[in-house]
Automatic annotation (TrEMBL), chain A:
<dbReference type="InterPro" id="IPR051991">
    <property type="entry name" value="Mitoribosomal_protein_bL32"/>
</dbReference>
<dbReference type="InterPro" id="IPR011332">
    <property type="entry name" value="Ribosomal_zn-bd"/>
</dbReference>
<keyword id="KW-0689">Ribosomal protein</keyword>
<keyword id="KW-0687">Ribonucleoprotein</keyword>
<keyword id="KW-0809">Transit peptide</keyword>
<comment type="similarity">
    <text>Belongs to the bacterial ribosomal protein bL32 family.</text>
</comment>
<protein>
    <recommendedName>
        <fullName>Large ribosomal subunit protein bL32m</fullName>
    </recommendedName>
</protein>
TrEMBL record, chain B:
<dbReference type="InterPro" id="IPR008991">
    <property type="entry name" value="Translation_prot_SH3-like_sf"/>
</dbReference>
<dbReference type="Pfam" id="PF01245">
    <property type="entry name" value="Ribosomal_L19"/>
</dbReference>
<dbReference type="InterPro" id="IPR001857">
    <property type="entry name" value="Ribosomal_bL19"/>
</dbReference>
<dbReference type="GO" id="GO:0006412">
    <property type="term" value="P:translation"/>
</dbReference>
<keyword id="KW-0809">Transit peptide</keyword>
<dbReference type="GO" id="GO:0005762">
    <property type="term" value="C:mitochondrial large ribosomal subunit"/>
</dbReference>
<dbReference type="InterPro" id="IPR038657">
    <property type="entry name" value="Ribosomal_bL19_sf"/>
</dbReference>
UniProtKB/TrEMBL annotation, chain C:
<dbReference type="GO" id="GO:0003735">
    <property type="term" value="F:structural constituent of ribosome"/>
</dbReference>
<dbReference type="GO" id="GO:0005762">
    <property type="term" value="C:mitochondrial large ribosomal subunit"/>
</dbReference>
<feature type="region of interest" description="Disordered">
    <location>
        <begin position="165"/>
        <end position="185"/>
    </location>
</feature>
<protein>
    <recommendedName>
        <fullName>Large ribosomal subunit protein bL17m</fullName>
    </recommendedName>
</protein>
<dbReference type="InterPro" id="IPR000456">
    <property type="entry name" value="Ribosomal_bL17"/>
</dbReference>
<dbReference type="Pfam" id="PF01196">
    <property type="entry name" value="Ribosomal_L17"/>
</dbReference>
<comment type="similarity">
    <text>Belongs to the bacterial ribosomal protein bL17 family.</text>
</comment>
Length: 199, 318, 185
């Protein structure tokens, strides 16, 4: 498709060039000015403007000095931005495949590390996806266990999630909103209920 | 903190190896002393000036009055948090206090009428005295300035004085008062009567502990054109501008890009453009203690001079 | 004393246009309101890195002013009302989060990097969570690194240095130390 576009543009440019050239020539002739620099190519005149052609020939025979017409100065000053040469396949492909989605796949990574818990590979600065998948599921289950309160009327005290094996600690959490989880505590979820972060 | 640092996972022994990593300071900050590094060295257990640092950082038993920071706005730290140079600020504060020990800089606000004498080699008496109303007061540290305005021979004149300019010889406050606006640049578009003050004005006395009086005057501006779009400035010390504004201007003022309602509650914008109150408290504390010290020294000096003169007089008598 | 307890950029990020919210400063704030509300409700937010790190600042500032001023302060109430689109969270902020973070000297949030999805758009996702949340931890249990070889070597080196310091008076004063030499000159 690009080829035809360029082809079309080329055609257009050629037509514009000939038109400009024709106007220049006509103007020069009308003013009785020399038409220096008029190449001997076909002006595409279809025989209708054969008069112009003959006049040109006449002019060419009597050339003397050059001077720029008004139109020449106008059209000569415009720089037409145009590709000089065809973009190579290599350049096109480089441009197409330089996004970050490709870098992710193609760049060599030297920071891949195995998770100590499950052994899945991940980059050093990221978290293990498999372990986090488990965490995500459990979190969803915990949120569901609280019910509508979680979304519409969040409790005004700290929330405590008690699993089936944590029932002895019930007395500790007086005054807090307790949510019963109807299953045993997962082995990988340590019993650090309500411990503060760094602080 | 300027450079974002990535927190590394539990995997590798990065923490213990950190001391062996060469600390590479990026080009951007090669000519500044980053506060993190300065504080690290200050508080290092190996430093010899640890006692001094403890003294300096100690919360004082002296209660600094709340108004102190409004009386001394030049001591406030540079508000742009990522371009602050605390060492430079500290050095500037030292210089400012030294200057204040020599020149008496009184308390004044925007709206106070002041007289400033500046050394001028070309003036008769080698001094140039100007009286005017303070229309603006800004700048941080040694760059603190104030602008005085007066009308002389029917011509409005504004002079900007750097507070710590060594050529300043005397700053007097003839009339201490506050106005409704923090800046009074609108006086340029008001009749000259509002900016005219007699050059031989007598000072209006004010008792020491009194509240600063508020002049709630409402200035009537001249008809447009103005030097600024005062209708967009929310001026309080100015009479309603409805007579001077067209419908189009009112509509333009209501445009969301002009109103910028989203900036009202923008927490990070405020955090980025202001310094923590606790830090300001610490600085004001330090300045207050130093100022007390300087005043004590001044009194001592005067006492000594008095004694000396007394001795001389005695000798003469003898 | 640094105001921010976590890395902060010099200029705010311009968040891109997305579903439901457009571009520009007004729309950006709307988006951040939604994100802050979600973080305060769920205590853990999984989103693009730029979204997470922008909300971090706002959430931390909101909690900071709530701690400093309390719930009787009109301006703070106004801000909490503005930033938390669901009003039951305003109660949570003052009654649950303020007592939780009252004595914190560190940041109130944590940010973790999620692995990039391959194949995908290459966008970096992350998790922003409030510290002290009841969910299972994102990072699995920390292991005791005390007995790793490098750490053993470093701890013995430290002990040796301490012993030498006790014996030699020069070391005690720290005069041999290069840092002190610089300070004294």
């Amino acid at each position: 498709m690009a080829v035809t576009l360029i082809g079309r543009l080329g055609n257009l440019l050629h037509k514009l060039e000939t038109l400009v050239h024709r106007i220049r020539v006509q103007d020069s002739l009308n003013r009785g000015l020399p038409t220096l620099g008029v190449p001997n190519f076909d002006l595409g005149l279809d025989g209708v403007n054969s008069d112009l052609e003959s006049r040109l020939k006449q002019q060419k025979n009597s050339e003397s000095g050059s001077s720029r017409s008004v139109i020449d100065s106008i059209f000569g000053s415009i720089l037409w931005g145009v590709p000089k040469s065809r973009r190579t396949l290599e350049k096109r492909l480089t441009r197409k495949f330089q996004g970050k989605e490709f870098k992710e796949v193609t760049a060599i990574k030297k920071n891949i590390v195995a998770c100590l818990e499950c052994g899945t590979y991940h980059e050093m600065h990221t978290i293990c996806p498999k372990c986090y998948g488990k965490v995500r599921e459990e979190t969803a289950a915990m949120k569901a266990a609280m019910g509508e309160d979680f979304q519409y009327n969040h409790p005004r005290s700290e929330v405590v999630y008690l699993y089936e094996d944590d029932q002895e600690d019930r007395a500790k959490y007086k005054g807090k909103y307790i949510v019963e989880m109807k299953k045993p505590r997962p082995l990988w979820f340590a019993k650090n209920l309500l411990t503060k972060g760094h602080g | 903190m300027a450079a974002p640092c990535r927190k590394v996972n539990y995997q590798f022994v990065k923490r213990s190896l950190r001391c062996f990593e060469p600390r590479v300071i990026p080009c951007r900050w090669s000519n500044t002393l980053r506060n993190q590094i300065v504080e690290k060295h200050r508080h290092s257990p190996l430093s010899s000036t640890r006692e001094l640092v403890k003294q300096q950082d100690d919360p004082s038993d002296v209660l600094v009055p709340r108004e102190f920071r409004f009386v001394h706005p030049d001591f406030l730290p540079y508000p742009i948090w990522n371009r602050r140079d605390r060492v430079r600020e500290k050095l500037e504060r030292e210089d400012m206090l030294k200057r204040r020990a020599v020149l008496d800089i009184p308390e004044f606000y925007v709206g106070s009428i002041m007289a400033v004498s500046i050394a001028d080699k070309n003036a008769p008496g080698k001094q140039n005295r100007f009286v005017g109303i303070c229309i603006d007061r800004a700048g941080h540290g040694l760059n603190h300035y104030f602008v005085l305005r007066n009308a002389i021979d029917g011509q409005g004149v504004e002079i900007k004085y750097d507070m710590y300019n060594p050529l300043l010889q005397k700053i007097e406050v003839l009339k201490m008062e506050k106005r409704l606006d923090p800046q009074l640049y609108y006086l340029r578009d008001a009749p000259l009567e509002y900016s005219t003050f007699r050059l031989d004005m007598e000072p209006v006395p004010i008792s020491k502990g009194a509240h600063v009086p508020l002049n709630a005057i409402k200035v009537k501006l001249n008809p447009r054109p103005w030097s600024r779009r005062w209708e967009r400035s929310n001026l309080k010390g100015v009479e309603p501008l409805d007579d001077y504004i067209t419908e189009k201007m009112k509509k333009q003022k209501q445009h969301p890009q002009i109103q910028k309602t989203w900036e009202m509650h923008d927490l990070m914008l405020k955090a980025r453009s202001s310094i923590d109150d606790r830090e300001v408290d610490q600085i004001m504390n330090e300045v207050y203690k130093r100022k007390e010290k300087i005043q004590k020294e001044k009194l001592q000096k005067r006492g000594q001079e008095g004694k000396r003169e007394g001795k001389k007089a005695q000798e003469v008598r003898r | 004393m640094n105001m921010f307890r976590f890395p902060v950029r010099n200029t705010p990020r311009k968040l891109k246009k997305s579903f439901g919210v457009g571009s520009g400063p007004a729309e950006r704030i709307k988006k951040l309101q939604m994100l802050v509300t979600a973080l305060i409700r769920n205590e853990r937010l999984e989103a693009k890195e730029s979204y997470c790190l922008e909300t971090r600042g706002y959430a931390e500032q909101l909690i900071q002013i709530a701690i400093r001023n309390g719930d009787r302060h009109a301006e703070t109430m106004e801000k909490a009302d503005y930033w938390l689109l669901e009003k039951d969270l305003v109660h949570k902020l003052f009654k649950v989060l303020v007592p939780r973070y009252q004595n914190y000297t560190t940041a109130f949030t944590d940010y973790h990097f999620l692995p990039k999805k391959v194949p995908g758009s290459g966008v970096q996702m992350g998790i922003l969570e409030l510290k002290g949340n009841p969910w299972p931890p994102v990072v699995p249990r920390q292991r005791n690194q005390k007995y790793l070889l490098t750490n053993v070597l470093i701890s013995t080196a430290k002990e040796e240095y301490r012993m030498e310091k006790k014996i030699s008076p020069d070391l005690k004063n720290g005069t041999h130390d290069k840092l002190n030499q610089l300070d004294n000159t």
